[in-house]
Specification:
With 342 residues, the protein is of the alpha/beta class. It has eleven helices and twelve strands. Strands 6-7-8-3-9-10-12-11 form an eight-stranded mixed β-sheet, sandwiched between helices. The mean pLDDT is 91.
């Protein structure tokens, strides 16, 4: 499921599968965990793609595959046209390390607590032997200014600054080598509500200022909608829908995307979620056909027998569903349909 885009892809995944082996049911028995299945995705330079879905749906695995931290079991991962996993390990580390940056969920654990912030920011510069030592010191000062921190912070330990300031340091470190792609994996979930908006605004400003491509992974799907040009919905390791962020929520055609967005609070109306029955199936034994069929009120025998093909809508909108939601259908109508399901 690859969305067309007029620009050449910065990152491209083609039929990527990630399967883990997990011990289960005995000393010598190992189940196969399908973390990603048949993933096709393109990220254009300067584009922000948000990734949403329930816990365990493969969001973080997708992010790790894109930056070379997780090898695919099969399929192709290309960065700027180069196949990452046909490179030697040293070439891959150099290519990915200089061109991508990651911002993790909790800055308290992502930063070395024993090093002053100056050294935290210098580490990637030193590892990649970036220019001269004097240039690296100047780059540290530039990075602090870039994320809105005073120069005096450089001499402090991460534990001596606030959570919001630590996340600014983490963002600065991710940008040290002037990457083309920034992956933000739940970057505000560990922060106080009062600080989250500041960090999100900073990321938006940096994206525009530096022309960054960005992958934004979050459980907060309203935030993903605000931050993204395009939103990807994942379920049980599969991408089930891609659509422009401006089309959400009522432009979504997949029942799962509609259910996700119906369960988020709004300022002017209470939560009125579309009900989903049953738990998420195990990734070791995914259902036949459509992975969402066991919880979908629209599912029938066709859904159990055959995986839906990718259907194309307007503006690069893609979805996999045998019975997509029709344009103009309200959440109230979908709630009524779900409640009528036996």
């Amino acid at each position: 499921m690859t969305a067309p885009h007029p620009a050449a892809a910065l990152v491209e995944l083609a039929d990527v599968h990630v399967v883990h082996r997990a011990r289960s049911g005995g000393l010598f028995r190992r189940d196969r965990v399908h973390a990603l299945t048949g993933t096709d995705l393109r990220i254009a330079p300067g584009e922000t793609v948000g990734v949403v879905g329930e816990s365990g749906c493969g969001k973080s695995t997708l992010a790790k595959v894109m930056v070379g931290l997780q090898p695919p079991t099969s399929g192709t991962v290309r960065f700027a046209g180069q196949d990452l996993w046909s490179m030697s390990p040293s070439t891959r580390r150099s290519t990915v390390g200089a061109s991508t940056g990651m911002v993790f969920q909790d800055p308290s654990t992502a930063l070395n607590r024993r090093l002053p912030i100056r050294q935290v920011l210098r580490d990637p510069l030193d590892v990649h032997r970036w220019r001269t030592p004097q240039d690296r010191e100047e780059r540290v000062r530039e990075l602090l200014d870039l994320v809105g921190l005073p120069a005096s912070v450089a001499n402090r330990l991460p534990s001596q600054v606030s959570g919001g300031q630590r996340q600014r340091v983490a963002i600065a470190r991710a940008l040290a080598l002037r990457p083309r792609l920034l992956v933000a994996d739940e970057p505000t979930s560990a922060l106080d509500v009062s600080v989250r908006a500041q960090i999100l605004n900073l990321l938006l400003d940096l994206r525009e200022q530096l022309n960054l491509a960005m992958i934004f992974v979050s459980h907060d799907i309203q935030t993903v909608r605000r931050m993204s040009d395009r939103v990807v919905t994942m379920y049980l390791g599969r991408i089930v829908e891609q659509l422009p962020a401006g089309s959400l929520p009522h432009g979504a055609r997949h029942p799962y995307t509609r259910a996700l967005f119906s369960a988020t609070p709004g300022l002017l109306s209470p939560i009125d979620p579309i009900p989903l029955t049953g738990p998420v199936p195990s990734a070791t034994r995914p259902p036949s056909g459509c992975p969402f069929r066991t919880r979908c009120w629209r599912a029938d025998d066709h859904c159990a027998a055959e995986l839906p093909a990718a259907e194309a809508g307007r503006d690069g909108h893609l979805y996999r569903c045998h019975h997509p939601v029709l344009d103009g259908t309200t959440d109230r109508e979908l709630i009524s349909q779900a409640q009528e399901r036996p």
